[in-house]
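Task 17 of the worksheet. Students: predict the tertiary structure of the chain below and write it out as structure tokens. Keep your answer in the requested format; marks are given for formatting as well as content.
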Amino acid sequence: MAAQEPRAEQESDFTPSKLGTKEYWDDAYKRELQTYKDIGDVGEIWESMHRVLKWMVKQNIPKNAAILDIGTGNGVFLVELAKEGFDNLTGIDYSNASIELTRNILEEEGLVNIKVQEQDFLNPSAELKDFDVCIDKGTFDAISLNPDGQNAAKLQYVSSLTTVLKPQGHFIITSCNWTKEQLLEIFSPGLELLQELPTPRFQFGGVTGNSVTALVFRKLC
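Model answer:
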């Protein structure tokens, strides 16, 4: 899942959106699945994949590290991770159409050993645990736009993350909506900021800023 609405400067500025609903993503991935079956187009490719992969390689993340792609979407990031040599990969999404699309793409790439599961990250199964790296490329953005209980959903997301991530494990989040300061406030309890990854910059009215935020956290215990 990947929210694409403009970034809000304050948490209170967010308004509920259809981008925060399961129905929206089910419909979106049904369309992408049909397009893939018709013409082989895998759908959206996130530029953030490359900077996250670059960081992981530079940090010498073990190739057998247990990696969770939260809201895997079309599964393309799993493909790129596998091509980089990572071999203990899991992708989850709450959209059945997303999972079907991902499985089709992985099969086409000959990557049938990657685990993909239909799961809501806010209610993870007991088996979803002990990950060395958790990666989010827009799922938290979408959850933040949920019309039903935004604050509760954000708190549950943090709870789920601390449940599935190992102590000293890494959490890498890319957000189109949240600033660095806001993400620090949300995730700092139990996690420490390791690094802010470089992202595209813009300049307007003499002010320079980032249109996307990408942060690496480490779980403290």
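Marker's comment: Helices lie at 22-39, 48-58, 76-83, 96-108, 139-144, 150-164, 180-187. Residues 1-13, 202-209 have pLDDT under 50 and may be disordered.
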